[in-house]
């Protein structure tokens, strides 16, 4: 229970404060309008990447279903793309960077491998 509380504190208090700190420092370094423009540009690029990669994952999953196979890898990729897209919705640099990284196939492959290990361990513990 304490672990869940610590994670919630991290997510809802520390991350926004850190993001605000980074935004203020970037604004002081490059200017407020440039910072605002950069945040918008990153969000647009992230949305474009998410759409492109999301459609590719959707096609691979559909091909597997057409073959009569269950799309395991594609489902995890889909969840990772959704997480990356959700992170891109926040107007901030740290979460945008993490979101953009999740949209890149090599990074997503590493995250997928980690997620599969965690899921396999959890299934083993429960089962």
Structure in words:
The chain is mainly α and 127 residues long. 91% of the residues lie in helices and 0% in strands. It contains five helices and no strands. α3 (72-89) packs across α5.
| Low-pLDDT residue spans | none
Category by helix and strand content: mainly alpha
Return the average pLDDT rounded to an integer.
85
> What is the straight-line distance between the termini?
23 Å
Strand content: under 5%
Number of strands: 0
Q: Can you count the helices?
A: 5
Order of helices and strands: HHHHH
- Main beta sheet, described? none
Helicity, as a percent range: over 70%
Dominant shape: flat
Rg over alpha carbons? 18 Å
Which helices and strands occur, and which strands form pairs?
Blueprint: H1 2-30, H2 32-66, H3 72-89, H4 93-103, H5 105-126
Helix pairs in contact: 1-2, 2-3, 2-4, 3-4, 3-5
Keywords:
127 residues, 5 helices, mainly alpha
Give a brief rundown of this model.
The protein has 127 residues and is mainly alpha-helical. It has helices at residues 2-30, 32-66, 72-89, 93-103, 105-126. It is built from five helices and no strands.
